[in-house]
Amino acid sequence: MTDTTPSLYGRLGGYDVIAAVVDDLFAALLADPAFARFGSGRSTDSHMRARQLLVDQMGELTGGPCHYIGRDMKTSHAGLAISAEEWDTNMQYADAALIKNGVADAERAEFLALFERYRGDIVE
User: Fold this and answer.
1) pTM over 0.90
2) Res 4: pLDDT
């Protein structure tokens, strides 16, 4: 017997919804002066690469056909001194982006839990 439960990827609305959520998350982070240190000195291309990596990572983690080719989270965030407060604010922005894109409560919680699993690798 096979499991016919739709993946989170499908329940979210697929690639386009994930990309819109990531775009809205990044826009919120870029607009917040408290996060300026993460974007300063980076080219537009570097910002677009980071955006695409997160879209691909979330597409893969949610059960979609995407493939994440980036580094692990501990390596990617080492030395950034990301605080628990910054993490919490990021999660609030992520939740707001999910709400803005019409993601239902159950799927929002499941999506945010995918981020949360990396807290220990990202927060210093």
Assistant:
1) yes
2) 79
CA-angle at 107, arms to 106 and 109, nearest 5°: 65
In whole numbers, what is the pLDDT of the chain averaged over residues?
96
Contact by Cβ (8 Å): 115, 87 = no
Superfamily of the domain at 8-122: Globins (1.10.490.10)
For residues 98 and 8, the answer to whether their CB atoms sit within 8 Å is no
Q: Where are the domains of the chain?
A: 8-122
Cα separation values, 90 from 14, 38, 103, Å:
22, 12, 17
Contact, 101 vs 20, CB < 8 A?
yes
Please report which confidence band the pLDDT of residue 119 belongs to, taking 50, 70 and 90 as the band edges. Answer: very high
Residue 123 bridge partners (DSSP): 82
